[in-house]
From TrEMBL:
Keyword Nucleotide-binding: yes
Pfam short name (any one): ABC_tran
InterPro entries attached to this UniProt entry: AAA+_ATPase, ABC_transporter-like_ATP-bd, ABC_transporter-like_CS, ABC_transpr_LolD-like, MacB-like_ATP-bd, P-loop_NTPase
Gene Ontology cellular-component terms listed: plasma membrane
Gene Ontology MF terms: ATP binding; ATP hydrolysis activity; transmembrane transporter activity
High-level lineage: Bacteria, Pseudomonadati, Verrucomicrobiota, Opitutia, Opitutales
Entry keywords, A to Z: ATP-binding, Nucleotide-binding, Transport
Protein name per its UniProtKB record: ABC transporter ATP-binding protein
Location of the ABC transporter domain: 15-248
TM annotation in the entry: none
PROSITE patterns attached to this UniProt entry: ABC_TRANSPORTER_1 (PS00211), ABC_TRANSPORTER_2 (PS50893)
Source superkingdom: Bacteria
Length: 248
């Protein structure tokens, strides 16, 4: 049936997974990490992903970010399926549409904070002066003064390093940001500051964010929470009155 012109159909999800499976190894050593995961995250939504250690959270976000191939099911970012793309198209999709922050931040030790943040723009071919100016402006919004922007990661606190990693994931204005345990190593105030920045970026940019967490202190930053157990998402619940800071 055709919908009447006045009915607004919902936007398609920005992150879409249906029946995703993944097994590591084979034979007697096989580990079924994902057993059929269904998940949808929409523009403007911050989805938390929680569950016990070993239930498959990192495997799932690695597949969504195109860093790991799935065995079965469907998975799309903005309507595109990583597994159907050539290596060059995958790199382009990652560079254009995705930002990720994993547990080990992978900041480059020999570069300053601002150079780390500018790196994705330089890789995408943006002129150095423009890339550095954009990176400095974003770090400024993240509370970094000029001196902190010129510091190498080893001279920054854990919370500051986490914010540099976040800025690097956002500087190219991606549609999707995926974070694996962004606050696990941080004290309450630093974790709050990081989640505040993530929340602000969702509100201003209508991004889809997927944040893996064990940390109940940050549950009020999410719109919904997907509970994962033994390789499946067993329940998705709406979170009451998510924290709504000023948009970035
Ligand atoms: N490279 C690998 N080779 C073999 N097994 C793996 C590999 N990576 C993960 N696994 C296994 O797959 C399952 C899911 O792991 P995964 O890291 O996705 O879980 P997780 O929920 O992120 O755990 P945690 O909360 O501890 O980070 C676990 O049983 C794990 O031991």
């Amino acid at each position: 049936m055709v919908a009447p012109a006045s009915v607004r159909l919902p936007d398609p999800p920005v992150i879409f997974c249906a029946g995703v499976t993944k097994t590591y190894g084979d034979g007697a050593l096989a580990v079924a990490a994902l057993r059929g995961v269904d998940l949808e995250v929409h523009a403007g939504e911050l989805m938390l992903l929680a569950g016990p250690s070993g239930c498959g959270k990192t495997t799932l976000v690695s597949i969504i970010a195109g860093l790991l191939a799935r065995d079965g099911g469907r998975c799309q970012i903005d309507g595109l399926d990583f597994d159907a793309l050539t290596a060059r198209e995958k790199t382009r999709l990652r560079g254009r549409s995705l930002g990720f922050v994993f547990q080990s931040l992978h900041l480059l030790a020999s570069l300053t904070a601002v150079e780390n943040v500018a790196a994705p723009l330089l890789i995408a071919g943006v002129r150095q002066s423009t890339a550095l100016a954009q990176a400095a402006a974003l770090l400024g919004e993240f509370g970094f003064d000029r001196r902190m922007q010129q510091a190498r990661p080893a001279r920054l606190s854990g919370g500051q390093q986490q914010r540099v990693a976040l800025a690097r994931a956002m500087v190219h204005d991606p549609r999707v940001i995926v974070c694996d345990e962004p606050t696990s190593a941080l004290d309450g105030a630093s974790g709050h500051a990081v989640m505040d920045l993530l929340r602000r970026s969702v509100l201003s940019r209508r991004r889809a964010l997927l944040v893996v967490t064990h940390d109940p202190r940050i549950f009020n930053f999410g719109d919904r929470i997907a509970h994962m157990e033994d390789g499946r998402i067993t329940r998705v619940e709406n979170l009451p009155s998510p924290h709504s800071p000023r948009p970035l």
